[in-house]
Amino acid sequence: MSVTVYAPASMGNVGVGFDLLGAALAPVDGSLLGDRVTVAAAPSGLSLTLAGPWANRLPEAQADNIVYQCAQFFLEAQGQPDSGLSLVLEKNLPVGSGLGSSASSVVAVLYALNEYFGRPYDPQGLLALMGEFEGRISGAVHYDNVAPCFLGGMQLMLDLPGRICETIPCFDNWYWVVAYPGISLSTARMRALMPDVYDRKVCIDFGRHLSAFVHACYRQDETLALAVLKDVLAEPYRASAIPGYLKARDGLATLGMLTTGISGSGPTLFSVAADLETAERAKTWLEQHYLLEPGGFVHVCRLDSLGTRVVE
Fold first, then answer.
1. Which residues participate in ATP binding (predicted)?
2. What does the angle CA 134 – CA 136 – CA 140 come to, to the nearest 5 degrees?
3. Binding site listing for ATP
4. Most exposed residue of 50, 103, 148, 165, measured as fewest CB within 10 angstroms of its CB?
């Protein structure tokens, strides 16, 4: 028996919702932007094989890989630490990209193991486990990548007992253009750029913008949603640390994009268009002006409503 699982890329924060909002991404060309993990029976022990275009960015020792560590923890929790399992991680997301790379790996392997062992965890229990492991990487538990990666769509974090998050509606006509320039930025480093204490007005603006955005999503008030889709907590401190971001934001506005922000902690940016033609123009512009290193890419996306799933 074997199980192969795909876990999509995700945008943490979605600009307006620092640590509280996240969305899963699906390229409109039908390609899968996310990691895959295959779990299969093996004669004895636990082994991990790496594949995919970004495998060379991962630790060489399998014991240092978060996928291997997730599997160890899962097997111990199931009382089967000596189970023979073969894991294959197809690493399709760059590390330190702002696209939920570590979350994609964590979600994929835990989902696959849960399927392989007959679903011992319900969705909320499995999500809590995913958040715990993602927290080992970032230094604290944040669900804004793992939740949308797992469940799909746009997720608002509640962090209540038995209700970690809730799906909120978005705008079906929006195209999300995401551009990864080819460089990596440490999440820890980007968090360190932010102040420990914020002015009261900034805190009020954050709450006002996020609550108004959620309200606008439910009312399907696109004008209101765009007016408040602003990042007052992180972007003012991170923007200058992302090469080319400020220039790109201005250039995309000139092209007619509705709003632009930082995906997660960067360097990937997202930009919203109301039609495919404008989104494709933005894609071409970003390919010419934002990509810095080999491996950089731009995708025109919708939100991925399916989340993590078993694939062939």
1. 94-104
2. 80
3. 94-104
4. 50
